[in-house]
Amino acid sequence: MVLDQLTPRKIVGELNKYIIGQDSAKKLVAIALRNRIRRLNLDEELKKEIIPKNILMMGPTGVGKTEIARRLAEIANAPFVKFEATRFTEVGYVGKNVESMIRELVDVSINLVRKEMISEVEKRAEKLVEERLIEIFVPGNKKNEQKAPFMEMLQMFGQNNPYINNENENNKVKDSDDINKRRAEIFEKLKNGELEEIEIEIELEEDSSPMFAGMGPEFEDMGIQLGEMFQNMMPKKKNKRRMKVSEARKVLLPIEAEKLIDKDKMIHEGIERAQNRGIIFLDEIDKITTRNGQGNGGEVSREGVQRDLLPIVEGTNIVTKYGPVKTDYILFIAAGAFHVAKPSDLIPELQGRFPVRVELEDLTEEDFLNILTKPQNAILKQYIELLKTDEVEIKFTDDGIKELAHIAFDLNQKIENIGARRLYTVVEKVLEEVSFEAPASTPWSLEIDSDYVKNKLGPVIDDENVREFIL
């Protein structure tokens, strides 16, 4: 879908395909995304003044916070990265630097642009792959090619030059004609797919192993960048590999496509997209508040992490291996359960940078029922298709689906509320035996009704100790 055509209603409609409920949250993120699209259509002077309205999502685990943010980025084809705020520590302590999330966003953005550019040159790259394959089957006479300029120079002195052996030249022409004929034959066979199972040897450049691995989290980013710098300086090692023609096509296509794309343009477009359309999802932000009910002890100051996050969320320049990147217009979506802490426990400056607040609701039993069947990626659809690959046809009856939803909802009340994630645990346990027995010697089918679900889960649910470990 074209970016300008993404109205808030259409964005919500797309989110509804994958996420059940949470209408308020969907509406707010749709408005936030549309405002970004509106900003891109303004003149340069006014565009500079409009900053994103960052979003703070509050709600228990498993209700769709991450999925909403991830699908939003997917709809807009925007660079997206997710981080747990607890991964960061304040400057000067062992831990991951907060600036690393910007570097990762830029990497994701450039890779996104790279894929788009590669798809544009794919047809040309396929032709180059054909040429490489033909060269493997019928190598050219490289020695003659190297001598060609010298022979041309001699011919300048006349056809009767004693240094020229006309007989040898005639033989070369014959050889050349023969090579061209054989190449044409190979081309036709490759085109018709006659050589796909033939094994050939191809030469590939080998990626050097990281030179600075294992430096520790506090030096992680520096190690990666130093490793890449030295890798670019060192000559590429070449390695020969044997594989079928069909496999060689897949290996060579991205290599040839990479040669055709404009690297400078790719990096420039990647940085621009990260700066103006990038989305960073900060999960577990409630766990870096200073009043989340845990003793400080020798722990690194949570407030220090907030203060390190603040300039990035406010807008600053971060140095990356591709150059400086502005964070002013990146959309930040923060999320947390906020069971103990409150948004007001964040430092005031950081609170002010998340003006859009939305509280996600607990999922009901009816929501669980819909999650099992309605989304495009519904849980039951996934399992049905997975087992179909092993010629096992499974069918869930209406009462069986209701029983699955009821048990998952009930377990969340009795053990711990982990939201929709409980459905995966329950369905996995119900299908454990079926998944183990497949594939069989002959295709078979199975109907899963409420009795089947109770039979598989009943003993586990009734035993409190087992229930807490298994489900």
Overall description:
There is one protein chain. The protein is α/β, with parallel strands linked by helices and 471 residues long. It has 3 domains: 3-119 and 265-359, Rossmann fold (3-Layer(aba) Sandwich); 122-260, no CATH class; 365-464, Helicase, Ruva Protein, domain 3, CATH 1.10.8. Helix content is 54%, strand content 12%. It has 20 helices and 11 strands. It has helices at residues 8-16, 23-40, 44-49, 65-75, 100-120, 122-137, 142-155, 166-191, 220-233, 245-260, 263-277, 302-314, 348-351, 365-373, 379-388, 398-414, 421-430, 432-437, 450-462, 464-470, and strands at residues 55-58, 80-84, 199-206, 237-244, 279-283, 317-320, 323-326, 331-336, 356-359, 392-396, 444-448. The strands form 4 sheets. It has a 5-stranded parallel β-sheet with strand order 2-5-8-1-9, sandwiched between helices. A two-stranded antiparallel ribbon has the order 3-4. Strands 6-7 form a two-stranded antiparallel ribbon. β6 (317-320) and β7 (323-326) form a beta hairpin. The protein starts with 7 loop residues before the first helix and ends with a helix.
